[in-house]
Each structure stands twice: as C-alpha cells, then as structure tokens.
Amino acid sequence: MNTLIYTACLGLLCLLAEIFNFRKYLIPIVVLGLAVIFSLNLQTWNHPETHFNGMLTDSNFSTAFSGLAIFIMLIIIILSGDFYTTSDDDKHITDYMAILVFTLCGALMMFSFANMSMLFLGIETLSISLYVMAGSRRFEVKSNEAGFKYFLMGSFASAFLLFGIALIFGVTGTFSIDGIGVYMRNHADHLDPLFIVGMLLMIFAMLFKVSAAPFHFWAPDVYEGAPSLITALMSTLVKIAAFAAFYKLLSVCFVFAMGKAEIILTVSCAATLLIGNLIALTQDNFKRLLAYSGISHAGYMMLAIISLQGSTDSALFLYSAGYAVASLAAFAIAITVFKSTETESISGFNGLAKKNPLLAAGLTMAMLSLAGIPPFAGFFGKYFIFSEAMRNGYENLVFLAIISSIIGVFYYMKVIVAMYSKPANKFEVKPTFAYQLVIIVCLLLSLFIGIFPGLFTKLL
Amino acid sequence: MLTLILLLIPLVASLLVLFLKGESVKWFSFFASIFQLIFTFYVYSVFQNKEAAKSLLAINIDWITSPKINFNIALDGMSLLMVFLTNLLMPLIVLAGLNRKQERSHIFYSLMLLMHFALIGVFVSFDGFLYYIFWELALIPIYFISLNWGGVNRSTVTLKFFIYTLAGSLLMLFGFLFLYWNTNSHSLSWFDLTVNHICSCKQGFIFWMFFIAYAIKIPLIPFHTWQPDTYSTAPSQGTMLLSGIMLKMGLYSLLRWLLPIIPNGVAEYTPIAIALCVIGVVYASVIAIMQNDLKKLFAYSSIAHVGLIAAGIFALNMQGIQGGLVQMLAHGINVVGVFYCADIIINRTGNSNINTLGGIRLLAPRFATYFIIIVLGSVALPLTNSFIGEFMLLFGLFEYNSWAAILAGLTVILGAVYMLRMYQKVMLGDLNENVTIFEDLKWNEELVLATIAILIFVFGIFPKPILELVEPIATEIFKISFVK
Q1: What's the pLDDT band for B53 if we cut at 50, 70, 90?
Q2: pLDDT recorded at residue B54
Q3: What is the pLDDT of residue B483?
Q4: Cβ of B465 under 8 Å from any chain A Cβ?
Q5: Which chain B residues are Cβ-neighbours of A418 within 8 angstroms?
Q6: Is there a contact between B314 and B277 (Cβ–Cβ < 8 Å)?
Q7: How far is B209 from chain A (nearest CA, A)?
Q8: Across the interface, do A311 and B66 touch by the CB < 8 Å criterion?
Q9: Rounded to the nearest 10 degrees, how much is the dihedral formed by the CA atoms of B129, B132, B134, B139?
Q10: Which terminus of chain B is more exposed, N or C, with fewer CB under 10 A?
Q11: Which uninterrupted H or E stretch holds B81?
Q12: Looking at the DSSP assignment, which residues form a beta bridge with residue B226?
C-alpha cells in the first residue's frame, strides 16, 4: 500500500508549502510527485498482497484502476495551473492542491479496500474533499449551491451506506469483504433478510455515488455549479472510482445474492440510459450536457456491473479509460472556450472551426469518442461492455443500450455542428501550452486505445 | 500483403496531402489514386494466378484475443470487383474537381482519401468487427465533407444522414454481437460465420437487424428519405462518392454479410424484401418523372436502379447474384457520369431546374454527345454496361416470380421516360434565356466523361472478364444461401 502512503505524504507536502512558502513551485512538485507515484504503482502489478491486517489489498484490479486514477489526477493538476489564476485562488492554491491529492487518496482506498470500513473511509475521503472543492468558488452562488447540494445528498447516501454495512455486520459478524463473501457462499440459498436489506442499502448508496437513476438528481446541478476543473474531476475520477468500488463490492461480497437485486439494477440501468440520453437532448449549457451524458455513460458502465461474470472487469477498465481521456480532452477544450467567451452555453462554441481549427478538431474527436464511433476508444469500450453483457445473456439491456446510443449521438453532434456551421462570435480562443499538451496527449491515448484495445482486454 | 498495401496507400496519401497547398493538392491526390489503380491491375494479375494468390493476398493477424477479433483482410472475386470499382472511380472523381476553386482543399482531399481508405477497408474485410469499424469510419469523412463544402441547409441534412445511417449501423452492431455469442465458433470471421449458423428460430430477428442497416444505406423504401436531400446538398464530388461507391457498400454487404450468414432468415423474409425493393423501383421512378430539380431527379433514379439490384440479389439464384455484381459496377460508373454532367450544368448555368434550361446542345455539342451516351447507359440500352446487368437481374427475378420481374422491368421503361424527358428539356430544343454562355468541355471534364463513355461501351460489349471474376464467389454464396 505504498501508493496510498506516498500520496498522503504528497498531500501533506502541499499543506507544508503554505508554511514554508514554496507556493510558486507547488504545482510542478505535485506533478512530479504524481508521476513518481504512478511509476511506483506499476511495481505492484502481479504482486498481490494484503496490508494492515486485511484492510487493504493490492491486486491487478486495484493497480490498474489506481494507475488510471493517478493519471487523471495528474492531468487535472496540470490543467489547474492555468485554471486557478485569480488572486483569491492564489491565496488558497495550497489548500486546493492538498484537497485534490487527498481526493486521490480516497479513490485509492476505494480501489483496494478489503474491509467495509476502508470502503467507507475511501468514499468519505473522496466525497468530503469534493464537497469542499465543488463549493470552492466562494463568491459564486452556483458554486455554493453545488457544494451544499452535493454535501447534503452525499451525506445522506453515505448514511445509507453505513446503515447497510451495519446490517451486514449484524448478520455476518465481520467487516472483511472476504468474510462476507464466505458467509454469502455458505448461505446462498437461505440468505437472512437483513443481509439482503443491507445489501440493497449499500447498492442504493453506490448508485447515488455513480449518479445512476433514480439517484441522479444531484448530478446536473452539482456539475453545472462547480468550477469547470472540478466538474472534470467529478465526471471522470469520481465516477470511475465509484464504479470500481461498486464492482469490487458486488463481485466479492454479493455475487450469489445478485438474484435479489437484479431487477432493481436492471431497471436502474434502463432508466439511467434513457434519462441520461433523453434529457441531454434538451440541454443548452455545455457542462450540464456533459453531466447528463455522464449519467448515460454511467448507464453503459452499469451493464458491466449487472453482468459481473467473465471479463467484465477488463471491460469496465477499458470503458473507464476511454471515457476518462475523452472527457478530459473535452473539458480542457471547454475550459479554454469558457474562459474566452465567458459563457458556458453551447453557443460559445459557435464557429470554433474557423477561429481555432485544431481545437475544433480536438473537440470533434472527443465528442465522437464519447458517442462511441470508431476508431476512437469509446467505441471499443462500448463494444466490449456490450459483448460481455451479451455473453451473460442480457440481450434486451444491450438492445436498449444500442437504442440509447443512437439517441446519444444527437447531442454530441449538436456541439460539432455548432463548431462547424454556426457563424463565429467575436471572441478569440487561445489555449495555453499546458492545455494544448493535455488535449494532444489525451486524444492520442484515445486513438491508441481504440486501435490497440487488445492490450487492455486481457488485463484483469 | 498486397491487399494491405492496397488498403494503406489511400491512408498514407490522406495524411500526406494535409501538408500540401494549392494546386499540388489535387495533382497529388490524382497521382495517388492513379497509382492505386495501376496497383489494382497488378493485384488482378496476381489474383488470376491462384496458387500465388492465397499467400500474397490474404492477411490474418490476431488483433484482440478476447473477444476474438482478427485483422483479417483478403480478396476474392467480389471484393476485387468492388475494390476495382472504387479505385477506378476515385481518379475520375479527383479529376472532376481539378478546375474548380476550392477553399481548404488540402483538408477536402484528405477527407476524400480517408473515405477511400475506409471504403476499401469495407470491401476487403473478412472479419465482422473489422468490417464494422470500416463501415462506421466511412461515415465521418463524408459527414464533414458535406458539412463544410455543401450547399443549402447542409447542417440539418447531413445531420439527418449521419444519424440515420448510424442508427442502422448500431442495429448491425447488435446483430454482430448476437452472432458472436450465439454461434459455436465464437468468432466474427466470415469463414466461420458462413459455416456455423445460429439456430433458425433467432435468425428472423437478426435478419431484420442487418437488413434495416443495409436498407438505410442502399437505400430501400421506406428508409430512403435521407437520400435525395443529401445528394443535392453534398458537394458534387461528395455526391459522386456517395452514389458511386458508398451505396455499393450496402449492396455488397447484402451478398457478403447477410445472405450467406443468415440463410434461413433470408429465406423467410425474402418476399417482404423483394416487395420493398420492387415497390421502391416503381415509386422512385414515378417520382423521378415528376421531378424538376436535376440532382433530385438523378437521386431518385439512383434509388430505382439500386432497388432493382437488391431485388435481383434477393431472388437467390445465380443470375440474380451475378447480375447484381455486374450491375453494381455498371451503376457505379454510370451514376458518377450522370452526377458529373449535372454538376457541369449547374456550375455553368447556376440553376438546376430543368424547366429553366434548354438548348445546351447548341452551345456545347461535345458535352451533349457524352451526356446522351451516359443517359443511354443509365437507361440500359443494349450495348451499354447496365443492359447486361439489368437483363441478368430481371432474368433472375423472373425465375423467382414473374410478376415481380414485370413490375421491376417497368424500371426500364420509366427510366427511359424520366431520363429522356430530362435530356430533352435540358439539352435539346431552343436556347432558353437563362442559358446565355455555356462553355464546352474543358480538358479534364472531357477526359472524365470520355473515360466513362468508353467504359460504358466496353463493359457493355465485353462483360466477360467481370463475369469470370465473380463467378466463383457467386457460386459459393449461392450454395450457402440457398435454403430449401
């Protein structure tokens, strides 16, 4: 669990920067630190280990997802250099950096938990850091609203999680997920009703965290109100961390009890797909559009959660990786455009193809990847998840997912059409070097994953 | 190996052309496509030599292990015919735009060459997943070509085209996923799928998944509504690509991915399919007779012709399948000629309404000659290439059901009606006041039209090479698809 310790130390280092006054060098230090942690994380590949008396485990699953999470945080921190530029931000930059790194700690705990208490700690660390960051623009009403809404509803969901954990502890007598798995195997045909209730409560809490219907209502307002960089973080890291934790929880603790929850998860998946795609059609604010599109992506990823057998963990990882790079590229371009045009509506993208053709091409590629069009990563992610779901017999859900993919293409194309055929407004759009670097790296990765997905499909 | 080279030349050319500027863009694209055409002749000569062909032409590399997907490209008679059509038409299409001014031509030709790459990929893929990737990839360049260089109302029209076609493709994706997991071989290789069929009970449903995708692409009634607007809005070279090659993707896929893989489904729903095709033929022809807009008229005539091809293919006999392949080649050549003539007229006179044109023959006699040859080729006069194709198709359809053949045969008569009506109104008669200056053909226009006219006669008089090329694969498909 060295990754977790190093990340926590990096977070503390950020706090020290305030005291010892090396704020100017903070972001390069954090970037370097995260790069080092990424390579150290790779060393835990194929070295399964348990730490802290069975609290945390290293497995290929946790190493892969941790690597993805560290990469995402690295990109976010690179982008934050030019994002936090006002004087108010400058006063608090060390706090922001520290909280971001602690968010990563929470995510790392969520990937490698072996004990319910670590799951809860990870989720809380992640969520509380994000409540603060979502509300970090103290003088904007929307940011305050976002932070407050997220805090209230998120705490409520965490309470459900705790209640579920408590009930399961009451039935099984252990917090360890392996112990719970053993209990479930031994009592598979006569599960205690309290166990089922506990499982369902935990599922509801996780559905909230991944913003699946009908627990998705917080997502659009929080995504819209939070600062755009934090929205990027929420839509990528938080969703991926929550899904990975959800997958691990279900596959270790609740596999044979899934029959009881299957109807709920299926209905939730179907509703998420439809609601996410249909409501996104009506959106005019780009961040809200991405929020609803994120909800629909949660629906696709839920197909992996429902199928659970076979290579669905590789499918989930591949989909997450493709979704993360495309989302980060889209947000990087969007932040640039928001800064220049001072509006967050889609009309800010009008005529971008004439003003800055490379940015327009980049956003086109990101949108096409999110829509699931070859040769980008998003297509193969969708294909692999659909394939695994088909293999486990969920043909109707896959058909619904395909129909919602068709609906989904509309709003992604709306942005592309705005860039290429609407008349340009007068604002100039110039991305800084860091943003250009991030956009290029993310899009190249998207193409790489799309053309060589074989490297990722047998990973886990 | 050779097939891979054939596939990659357009891709490399597409990337290189981005760095050029001005006139050199068009010349580079032209020479790249001519090189590709010459290479196709070389590949054809290799193909004749059966022993060497197997190792040189097919590639089967493991791409992804789970789910099992191979990078499997190969050439058989049908694929080679389609590749030949694509590589033949591409230099003509590039040549067609040589004297037109175009902004950002390097991006335009890069997109065209990218589409060339995707189209060849569709025709040489023998693995379902690879085929699907190329199928979808072909959509992106044409979408951007139409969006940026198109005519009126282009964003709505191209969006409709894109989403409509994509919807069909996604249904096909569902079909492929279903086939992968429900066949014993668990692979999407064409060779496996044609041998291991899924149980007949489920074939009906999967037939519709594939058929709707192809019906949208070809297009067949009632999935045709995207076509007339898209053909009139797209820039002329885009329309030539769309009508000449891209719709052949749908027809080719019927023969490659529908008939041999879902034979029971096809046998069950053939009556409906043929009914839709034949209704489409008559319906589109009647609308074409009433059309006054030049491009829309040719768009509807294209629907009528491909309806006949699809009907002949669904008749499930040797004449139908062979006739379909021959007519695919013929229709590709003819429709590019027809749309290019329309483009010449619209470019010179500024309007496309046939009622406001007339007497162009007096000002441009050479153009009139080439135009009438192409019109007669489109009408399927004997000695032209489409006569062979339509004759075989109607023959095949007649063996299936004489009434279907009679109704479909109306296309010949109705085709003559709208084509000759158009020609009379536009080219013959007195000089209309809207046509004041009409320059006769420039050198590149004449070269393109002359090539097409010569090809119309050559393939009309000497179709033997084509028939010999496609006979083996047609026999194989017929044997697999014909279910008693």
Answers
A1: low
A2: 67
A3: 66
A4: no
A5: none
A6: yes
A7: 11
A8: yes
A9: -160
A10: C
A11: helix B77-96
A12: none
Residue A199 lies in a domain: no
> Among residues A271, A276, A299, A303, which one has the least CA distance to residue A288?
A276
Q: How many CB pairs under 8 A join A and B?
A: 72
Residue A213 lies in a domain: no
Among the listed residues B134, B137, B10, B140, the one whose alpha carbon sits nearest the alpha carbon of residue B73: B134
Is B15 part of the contact surface with chain A (CB cutoff 8 Å)?
Answer: no
Residues B177, A379: C-beta atoms closer than 8 Å: no
Distance of CA B112 to the CA centre of its chain: 15
Tokens of B439: 């320059």
Residue of B nearest to A311 (CA): B66
Picking from B331, B299, B297, B296, the residue whose alpha carbon sits closest to that of residue B313 is B331
Distance from CA of A260 to the nearest CA of B (A): 26
Contact of B139 with B172, CB cutoff 8 Å: no
SS3 call for A56 = strand
Say whether residue B163 is in contact with chain A using an 8 A CB cutoff: yes
Res A346: pLDDT = 86
Q: Is B67 on the interface with A (CB under 8 A)?
A: yes
Q: Which chain B residue has the Cα nearest residue A371? A: B166
* Cα dihedral B237, B242, B248, B249 in deg (nearest 10): 120
Tokens 């627990």, residue located = A215
The residues of A whose Cβ lies within 8 A of any Cβ of B are 311, 353, 368, 373-375, 379, 383-384, 386-387, 390-391, 395, 398-399, 402, 405-406, 409-410, 413, 417, 420-421, 453-454, 457-458
Number of compact structural domains in chain A: 1
Query: Tokens at residue B181, please?
Result: 């997991």
| Nearest by Cα to B413 from B304, B277, B253 | B304
CA distance A346 to A329: 16
Look at strands B59-64 and A56-58 and give their pairing.
Answer: unpaired
Contact A356, A339 (CB under 8 A): no
C-alpha A267/C-alpha A308 separation (Å) is 16
Residue of B nearest to A386 (CA): B177
Q: Looking at this protein, which amino acid is placed at residue B111?
A: L
The answer to whether B129 contacts A383, with C-beta atoms less than 8 Å apart, is yes
Q: Which domain holds residue A276?
A: 270-460
The pair of three-digit structure tokens given for residue B144, joined into one six-digit string = 């951007």
Contacts of A391 in chain B (CB under 8 A): 181
State the smallest CA–CA distance between residue A408 and chain B in angstroms: 10
Q: What is the pLDDT of residues A26-83, one digit of tens each?
A: 889 999 999 999 999 988 888 888 888 888 888 889 999 999 999 999 999 999 988 8
Query: Over the stretch A412-436, which tens digit does the pLDDT of each residue have?
Result: 998 998 888 888 777 788 888 888 8
Instruction: Answer yes or no: is A291 within a domain.
Output: yes
**For residue B46, with 0-12 CB atoms within 10 Å meaning exposed, 13-18 middle and 19 or more buried, which class applies?**
middle
Check A457 against B154: CB less than 8 A apart: no
Confirm if A229 and A76 have CB atoms less than 8 A apart: yes
Peptide bond into B222 cis (omega under 30): yes
Q: Rounded to the nearest 5°, which phi and psi values hold at A157?
A: -65, -40
Helix (H) or strand (E) segment spanning residue A49 = strand A49-51
Distance CA B383, CA B387 (A): 7
Where residue B271 falls (left for φ over 0; alpha for ψ -120 to 50; beta otherwise) is alpha
Residues of A in contact with B154 (CB under 8 A): 421
Token output for A334: 């969007």
Q: Quote the distance between the C-alpha of residue A260 and its chain's center.
A: 27
Residue A164 lies in a domain: no
Biggest CA–CA distance in chain A, Å, is 68
Q: How confident is the model at residue B363 (pLDDT cuts 50, 70, 90)?
A: confident
Q: How do beta strands B59-64 and A49-51 pair?
A: unpaired
B153–chain A Cβ distance below 8 A for any pair: no
Q: Which residues of B touch A383 (CB under 8 A)?
A: 129, 173, 177
pLDDT of B430 reads 80
